[in-house]
Every structure is written in C-alpha cells, then in structure tokens.
Amino acid sequence: MNCCVVGLQWGDEGKGKVVDILAEKSDLVVRYGGGANAGHTVIIGDERFALHLMPSGAVRPGTVCVIANGVVVDPEVLLEEINGLAERGISLDGRLLISENAHVVLDYHKLEDRLREEALGKHKIGTTARGIGPCYADKVGRSYAVRMADFRNLAALREKLDDIVAYKNKLFGALYDAAPINAADIFEKCSRWSDALSDSIVNTTEYLYSALDVKKNILFEGAQGALLDLDHGTFPYVTSSNASALGLGPGCGVSGKWVDTFLGVVKAYTTRVGAGPFPTEQDNEIGQWIRDRGHEYGTTTGRPRRCGWFDAVAVGFTTRLGGINQIAMMHLDTLAGLEELKICRAYRVDGKETTFFPGDAERLSRAECVYETVAGWTEDLSTIEHYADLPDGVKNYVATVERLVGAPITMLGVGPKRTQIIYRD
Ligand code: IMP
After folding, report:
1. Are the C-beta atoms of 64 and 28 separated by less than 8 Å?
2. Catalytic residues
3. Candidates 77, 224, 270, 297: which one to mutate for ligand 1, based on the most atoms within 8 Å of Cβ?
4. Which of 10, 16, 67, 242 could bond to 247 as cystine, CB 3.0-4.6 Å?
5. What is the mean pLDDT of each run of 10 residues along the chain (425 residues)?
C-alpha cells in the first residue's frame, strides 16, 4: 500500500507524527518538495530532535529514506541531521538516497532570502530565511542552478560557481549594496559535501519505479501545507513549491495513480507563521490560549504561530485540490476547556456568501467568516484510546468538520506521543 501524507492548512499540522507512525509499516519514506524550511520534532528516547530535510522515517532503522528531485537540499543541514542521528545511535548508512536532479541551496540563496526580505520591509513574506525561494527561482531560471549531480564533477562545478558568483555579486551589489561573496569558499564547502554525500546521489525516479514494481510500501511525505502551495495557495504569501498533494508527480516522478491513500493532516484549529491573510485568526485571548496550550512556536524559526478557529472553507478546498480521501485531525486535546468552538463554514466577501476558497490573497483578506458554533468539552483526552470513549463534544466536532470538508476523519491526535492517536474505521 502506498500513502501520501500532506498538510491541508498552512503547515505545522503534525505531519511528522503521522508519518512517523505510518513509517513503521513502510519500506520507503520519500520527501518530494520543500527544503530545510520544514521542521518537525522527533522524540528519540527522552530526547527531542528537530529534523528539517530528512524524511521522518529516518528514525526507523529499516526504512529507506529518499530525498527526491523536488526537494531543495541544503547539504549543511542534511549533514548535521545525519551526524545528529548517528550520535544518537541511528545510522543512515546505505539507506539514504538523494536525487541527482535535486537542486542545492547554497550560501548565496540564504543571503538573497535575507537581503530581499529586509528590503521589502512591511511587505515582506516572512520566509524562514532558509534560501528556499531563491533556490527554486534559480531552478526555474535554469542558467545559474546547481544540482546534486554537479557534486560528481567538481572541476566543472568550480567553473560554474565562478560564473554564478560573479553574476550574484553584480546583482546583490547593485540591488542591496552587499559585500561580495567568494566562489572559492562556496566551492570548498561543495567539495566537502561531495565527499560526504556522493555515494547517496542516484536517479531516485528509477529507484522508485523499481520499488513500485516489487510492491514495496511507499510513504510519500509532503512538506508545509496546501495553503502555502505556490500555485494554489495564498500567493504571494506562500512557499516556492507545490506544497499540496499536486506536488507529488513533479516532485518525485511518481503519478498519483500509484497512491492508494491521500491522507490530509489538519490541526483541530488553524495556525499560520509568516505574513498573509488568515480569515479565522484570533488575534486575542483565545488565540493566545491556543498558542499556550498547543505550544505553537515554530520548529524552524521559533516564531510564535498565529492561531485561530478551524476553517472548513479552506480545508474543504485543499481536500478537493489534493484528492484527499482520509483526514488525520491532530491536537484535539489542545482544545479541551473551551466552552464553545467555532468552525468557519463560509466566507462573506463583498456582501456575498461563498463556500469556495478565494484564489486571491487580497480578496481573501476581505473575507468575513460565517461560523457554525458547537459545544466544547472539558475532559482530558490524552489517555483515551478508543473513539467510542471520546466525549460527545469531540464526536460532534469531528462530525461537523467531516460534513463541511467532505472527507472522513480516520485518525485523531490526542497528545504528542506516537501512542496518543485514535484510529477510527
Ligand atoms: P519560505 O518557504 O521560507 O520561503 O517561506 C514562505 C512562507 O511559508 C512563510 O510564511 C513561512 O513561514 C511559510 N513556511 C515555510 N515552511 C513552513 C513550514 O514548514 N511550516 C509552516 N510555515 C512554513
């Protein structure tokens, strides 16, 4: 069985935990988009450890980890993660494959990300400053791009870097009055990374096809959330890749035809980091209450996350967009204690009610929410193991969301641990 797990909101839905659980029954876990802007915490023994690039399956010793062509790879971060896992007794030897076609995030991408955001001032996107946008821009621009395959021919890479760095220095000098960067320094890092990673660089599409042929169980791990999708999200306040399930095909060369389950992950409420419209945002004591109870601070940047009610218009849209046939709802335990809960069932824009998510950030920023209000619950959910034992308030909340978004909720998260998940057939 093959499964693709994607976030249906603005990221941070708890995909890492879901992937970690599903990875137990998977032979391969595949990352197919985004880069070190992603972040999830894995718990190894008593220790918490943040992964940004490595597929979450990395902590399961028998699982093959694939970083496919759609990912932008920051080798510095990747090697830190490989070494961090090794120090905790988890070896990636022989089970990490990186696509030769994946693009490489270099220092000048991170520099450009920062310089551009600073220059944008109040119009900034609020990126993670990990160089994601500039690296994908170089990929689309083609002429000044570095791919993992370039690590195989260092002499050619040296020449290429001279050209790229000369171009970047002209650009950054003119636009931002930035000090020049040095091609030799970047090349020196690349040759170190080449030594460390060359054995893992392969044609991952070919590898995935052979795995499909012998009916391996493959878990495809989406990054960020569908509302941050470059084409279908709240542009320009999005990331630079197709973070919805639609990114699967271009991101790793495998058609959705081979995927049995598209599992969408949501939080029982909504969060967002960075700028951009957020119709159900509660910039008030309710938002703060959710932030405190849900520990809503970014794994990658530590920024406080913006918090608000569940938005069934947005999730209904991303459910259809991704062909989602099952949903995992996380953080239900966080909401215990609120007398009533609101779920946005429609927007009112320019005096008209709509249940379709506007594709335009400006229009979305003018949307007023039409809420359905349901009773909350006070019971602690963290030790409940069976759906039947959940309070009626939770069951009603889940049923209301299912009705509004149009897909069944089959997994319910009631705490941060692997075991704190309730399955519903
Ligand atoms: P970038 O991906 O660093 O360019 O950031 C673009 C937008 O996506 C910003 O609003 C980020 O906060 C957001 N973003 C990127 N990655 C994640 C993630 O993993 N979780 C939540 N938001 C993210």
Report:
1. yes
2. 12, 40
3. 224
4. 242
5. 97 91 94 93 76 90 95 97 93 96 98 96 93 98 97 97 97 96 97 97 98 98 96 96 97 97 98 95 97 90 93 98 97 96 97 94 95 97 96 97 98 92 90
